[in-house]
Amino acid sequence: MPLVTSTEMFRKAYDGGYAIGAFNVNNMEIIQGITEAARACSAPVILQVSKGARAYANRTYLMKLVEAAEIETGLPICLHLDHGDSFETCKSCVDDGFTSVMIDASSKTLDENIAITRQVVEYAHAHGVVVEAELGTLAGIEDEVKVAADASSYTRAEDVQEFVQRTGCDSLAIAIGTSHGAFKFKPGSKPQLRFDILEDVAKRLPGFPIVLHGSSSVPQEFVRMVNENGGNMPGAIGVPEDQLRQAARMAVCKINIDSDLRLAMTGTIRKYMVDHPADFDPRQYLKPARENIKQLVMHKITDVLGCDNKI
Ligand code: G3H
Ligand code: 13P
Ligand code: ZN
């Protein structure tokens, strides 16, 4: 099956009260772990590539690895640009054969965000590609997206209708308390997403797919694996999975997960290195890392997102 857009995935997810997992990919083992999990669960899946991932792995390699996964699994796979920072980056991904792009102009003024999103939508739609946009800013740090914690601001529900109408975007990422990375909430505080904002947004945009970034739950078993094997991540804390389940039952159709994959991979490799100090064959530590990514994604699909058996 060729790569697909997220249109059909989101329509069914919205009506069915579940969400599609959007997992970040950077290399072959991550792509294999995610897509083997999706195949085992008969789940549609979104593989997303950041600008940093393209710079790290080389755009042609990533494209060909995703094509290989699609040939091997026969799954409906949507290939998505995560946090596109400019029209040029989005255009480059559309031209490369991505089926979905995100333009993240959320740090700009509302009018600037609308103008650049509109420009991306016009180009993408003319090429059969769908567009995710963002309103409101999340705290957190990635390679290409840096937002200080105090600069984060919830989405203003009163802006969403005008934004969607004027841009023509196909889905909308909103800020309701999630953030990027593994340190999302202060240790000891009670993580609580703003479901009132999500509900308000959903009322103003009936049937419209909402996206949740920064949705890793930071499994403590992997944090322990890191910390017990020479790493230093005390206080890492994520979004509680019951709140992700609630979001998936509401208007949220796409849930973004990257940090959990990084933790699963790094925790496993750290432990392997400590347990096997004389090994130097990369396959020996990448194999269990890939397997733990697969197990993690199967758990997300079946126990959190609810998108298993939805092909
Ligand atoms: O939200 C963004 C993802 O976690 C990607 O991060 O830019 O470091 O690849 P990255
Ligand atoms: P996490 O850092 O919570 O995994 O969020 C990933 C993300 O939003 C990718 O766009
Ligand atoms: Zn994100």
Would you write up a description of this structure?
The protein has 311 residues and is α/β, with parallel strands linked by helices. The protein has one domain (7-305): Aldolase class I (TIM Barrel). Helix content is 48%, strand content 15%. An eight-stranded parallel β-barrel has the order 1-2-3-4-5-8-9-10, surrounded by ten helices. A two-stranded antiparallel ribbon has the order 6-7. Strand 1 (20-24), helix 2 and strand 2 form a beta-alpha-beta unit. The radius of gyration is 18 Å and the shape is globular. It starts with 6 loop residues before the first helix and ends in a 6-residue tail after the last helix. The mean pLDDT is 96. The protein binds glyceraldehyde-3-phosphate, 1,3-dihydroxyacetonephosphate and zinc ion.
Quick structural summary:
By secondary structure, the protein is of the alpha/beta class. It is 48% helix and 15% strand. The chain has one domain (7-305): Alpha-Beta Barrel (TIM Barrel).
- The CATH architecture term is Alpha-Beta Barrel
Biggest pleated sheet: 8 strands, parallel, barrel
Low-confidence stretches: none
Q: Strand-and-helix sequence, N→C?
A: HEHEHHEHEHEEEHEHEHHEHH
- Ligands: glyceraldehyde-3-phosphate, 1,3-dihydroxyacetonephosphate, zinc ion
Task: Give the helix/strand class.
Answer: alpha/beta
Tally the beta strands: 10
Question: Characteristics of this structure?
Answer:
311 residues, eight-stranded parallel beta barrel, two-stranded antiparallel sheet, 48% helix, globular, binds glyceraldehyde-3-phosphate, binds 1,3-dihydroxyacetonephosphate
